[in-house]
Structure formats: structure tokens, C-alpha cells
Automatic annotation (TrEMBL):
One of its GO terms (cellular component) is cell outer membrane. It comes from Nostoc punctiforme (strain ATCC 29133 / PCC 73102). The lineage of its organism: Bacteria, Bacillati, Cyanobacteriota, Cyanophyceae, Nostocales. TPR repeats lie at residues 72-105, 106-139, 140-173, 174-207, 208-241, 242-275. This is Tetratricopeptide TPR_4. PROSITE patterns: TPR, TPR_REGION. Residues 325-381 are annotated as: Disordered.
Length: 381
């Protein structure tokens, strides 16, 4: 569905939500990603699942009844049941039938948007969420889901506006905070992203992804000690995050804590034995510590992994690096072992690359598959 069509859906109640008009006219040109620093930045570009409005399981006539029309309520409940069973076609039919009997069922429109989201029919999903908002301007889940569609479409400024509006209505929606932090990070608004991630963590201190993304933003801001501490918190919650170990080890190496950095790199490799970036970074750190023999062995493994991954350019760079080490090891190894200490900053005049190399990040176009999630459990999982 075109943006102009979305606008026409809102024309009847434009005075209620004037921000939506400007939202659909904002510049949707994507900026280049920021991964310029020489670290293994690999943010969890996870967009939280669409929010589903919780209603009583079978209490169609409870005081929170979805509709005063009994047939509409019955079809709505059928739609929810079929949706939960992954019968998307049956769920769509039931929700359509409910809306024919009660066109004011904004929750049914929200579910329809979720169905189309799962089918990657983003334009149609956008239409359903927009109509749900027109019917109920205080529908936090619909604003959140609208932001999700816009985010995935690359309309990041508009997505920010939608996420913020969801949070105006429900400031405790952690998923909206998580995704807002993510899109702010993508827009290079790092201080704002940091503040939002911190809010998300204050509401849900068990969100490992929020800690991890916060650590990356802090690292890019140059707040090294805070970033290390935040990586540690992320790893307490998710000890299997090999990239977090790699990133934290990079910072430890830069801070002169080479011994711990080496240990942390090795943990990253234990978790992911194919992690070429971790092998390379470990090799560089070992070399800077004067351990030429071990450095050479680790760099050989990095070379192998890069070749297997098809990264010939990086593999050739490592070949050149190893040749330089071989040429100088006979005459310079004693001096290296005497002059290089764990607290010493890497020598910038050396022919050896002294900083960890970048790792290609996951991209927004390949998010974790969308799964249904109720409003009571939505988070940046």
C-alpha cells in the first residue's frame, strides 16, 4: 500500500492524530551504517515481535468483552484461536467476519496487521495498523506495530515517531523502547539510543540484547569502561554471546589488560570455533605481547577461517602479516618480549596491524523471524 493510501485512511480523524500526517511525509532515505570503528560491532538487529492485544480466553461476555455484538465477538475469538494455532488463513477469515459485524473492532485490525506482517506483506499490514489507530487513537500496540512496519520498510524517522507515540500511551512497553533504541542507533543518534536502552533495562533488567546493544553504543561513544561493564552484564544474562566476548576483549586489549583480553578471546572462540575475527584479534594481541609463536599459529587459523568464508581479501592481508612476522621474528623476538607488557599501548609504528578488524554486522533486512507475542511478554528477544 502506498503512503498516500495510508494518509487517506486517516483523513476522517486527522485532527485527533495530526502527527500521523507528518509521519508519512518524512524523509525515508536510509543513512549508511556506522560500523567505522575497528571493532567487531555486531548488534542484535532484532525487531521485537508484533504486539497482540490480550483478551480473556473464552470470556466473550466478560466486562472486558471485545464487542457488544455477539456474532462479532464469537468470530473474533475464533480468529484469535486460529491465529494462535498458526492457521493464518482461517484467522484472517474470522477477523474479517468479525469486522463486517462490528467495524469498530480495532483489535481485529491489529491482528490482521500481525498476520500480514508474518507473511511479509508490509504494505497491507501498514494499512491495517493505520486503520486500527484511526478507530482507536489510544491503541498503543497498533502504534508500536506501525513503527515496526515502518522500521522494516526503512522509513526510520517515521518509525521513531510511531514508537514514541506508543510509549506516550504506554511508557512501560519494553519492546517499543528496545526498537526505538535500535532505530536511533541506526540513525547515528547514539546519546539518545543509550538513554532509551537504559530505560528499557530499568523496566526489564533481564533483557540481554538491550545490554548488548547498549554496550555497543557506549563503545562507539568512547565510554570504554562503561561499555566493558555493560558487556559483562550482557554475558551474565547470555553466556553464549560470542560476539560480546570478542567486543569486550577488544576493549580490554585497548585498555592494556592484555592477559584478560586473551582469555576472553579464547572464550569467544570456544563458543564459536569458526569466528575468524576472534582468531585474528587474539593473534594481534599475542603478537603485541611478544608471544610470536602462538600469535603465528592463531593467525594461521584466522587465515584458514577467512578463506573458508570466502573473505579472500582479509585472508591475503593476514598472509602478508604473517610474512612480516616471519621476517622479523629471528632478530626482533627478544626485544619484543622485553619491551611489550600487558599495560603497554600497542605500538602504532609497527608494520603489524595493531587494532582488531571489523566484523560485518547483521542487517535489518534479515531480522529474526516475527513470532506472535502478547503484550504482557513483548520484549526485544
Amino acid at each position: 500500500m502506498s503512503i498516500s493510501t495510508s494518509m487517506s485512511l486517516l483523513s476522517r480523524k486527522s485532527q485527533t492524530q495530526p502527527w500521523l500526517h507528518s509521519l508519512f511525509h518524512q524523509n525515508s532515505v536510509q543513512k549508511k551504517p556506522l560500523f567505522r570503528l575497528l571493532f567487531a560491532f555486531s548488534a542484535f538487529l532484532v525487531i521485537a515481535a508484533p504486539a497482540i492485544t490480550n483478551f480473556p480466553g473464552s470470556k466473550l461476555l466478560a466486562e472486558t468483552a471485545i464487542s457488544q455484538d455477539l456474532e462479532a465477538a464469537s468470530f473474533f475469538q475464533q480468529g484469535v484461536t486460529r491465529y494462535n494455532r498458526k492457521d493464518l488463513q482461517g484467522a484472517e477469515y474470522a477477523f474479517r467476519q468479525a469486522l463486517q459485524r462490528d467495524p469498530s473492532l480495532g483489535a481485529a485490525l491489529n491482528y490482521l496487521g500481525n498476520i500480514f506482517m508474518e507473511q511479509n506483506r508490509l504494505d497491507v499490514a501498514l494499512q491495517e495498523y493505520t486503520e486500527a489507530i484511526r478507530i482507536n487513537p489510544n491503541f498503543s500496540e497498533a502504534y508500536y506495530n506501525l513503527g515496526l512496519v515502518l522500521h522494516r520498510q526503512g522509513q526510520k524517522d517515521a518509525a521513531i515517531t510511531a514508537y514514541r507515540q506508543s510509549l506516550v500511551i504506554d511508557p512501560t512497553k519494553v519492546a517499543a523502547l528496545y526498537n526505538l533504541g535500535l532505530v536511533l542507533y541506526e540513525q547515528e543518534q547514539l546519546p539518545e539510543a543509550i538513554a532509551v536502552y537504559q530505560q528499557a533495562i530499568n523496566l526489564d533488567s533481564s533483557n540481554a540484547n538491550a545490554y548488548f546493544n547498549l554496550a555497543i553504543a557506549l563503545q562507539q561513544q568512547g565510554q570504554t569502561e562503561q561499555a566493558i561493564a555493560t558487556y559483562r552484564q550482557a554475558l551474565q544474562l547470555d553466556p553464549q554471546n560470542a560476539t560480546a566476548y570478542n567486543n569486550m576483549a577488544n576493549l580490554l586489549a585497548i585498555q592494556g589488560q592484555a592477559s584478560e583480553a586473551i582469555s576472553v578471546y579464547r572464550q569467544a572462540i570456544r563458543l564459536n570455533p569458526k569466528n575468524a575475527s576472534a582468531y585474528y584479534n587474539l593473534g594481534v594481541t599475542l603478537y603485541n605481547q611478544g608471544d610470536i609463536k602462538k600469535a603465528n599459529g592463531v593467525l594461521k587459523r584466522a587465515h584458514t577461517e577467512y578463506r573458508e568464508q570466502g573473505n579472500i581479501e582479509q585472508a591475503e592481508k593476514i598472509e602478508q602479516l604473517m610474512q612480516q612476522i616471519a621476517q622479523k621474528s629471528g632478530q626482533q623476538q627478544p626485544q619484543a618480549s622485553q619491551t611489550t607488557t600487558p599495560s603497554q599501548t600497542p605500538d602504532k609504528t609497527s608494520n603489524v596491524v595493531q587494532t582488531p578488524e571489523p566484523q560485518t554486522p547483521n542487517q535489518l533486512e534479515n531480522p529474526v523471524s516475527v513470532e506472535p507475542q502478547s503484550t504482557s511478554t513483548t520484549s526485544g528477544q
